[in-house]
Design goal:
Helix content: 55-70%
Structural class: mainly alpha
Order of helices and strands: HHHH
Distance between the termini: 13 Å
Radius of gyration: 11 Å
Number of strands: 0
Strand content: under 5%
Shape: globular
């Protein structure tokens, strides 16, 4: 997943869109979006998803 897709996920989550809808819009499976949010949501950011932080965490793995 690239930073552009992560930015899109962040924006749509803030807008209150469901993970299923986001997955459909990006052409990804629901589980891919769900895993992205679970793996890369940092508690230090008050449980909010940050695309830049997610990209940093993903690249560190």
């Amino acid at each position: 997943m690239n930073l552009h897709e992560r930015f899109y996920i962040e924006k749509r989550i803030i807008d209150g869109v469901t993970q299923a809808t986001i997955a459909r819009e990006l052409g990804l499976s629901r589980s891919t979006v769900s895993r992205e949010l679970k793996r890369n949501t940092d508690p230090a950011f008050h449980g909010l998803y940050s695309c830049r932080r997610a990209d940093t965490l993903a690249k560190a793995r």
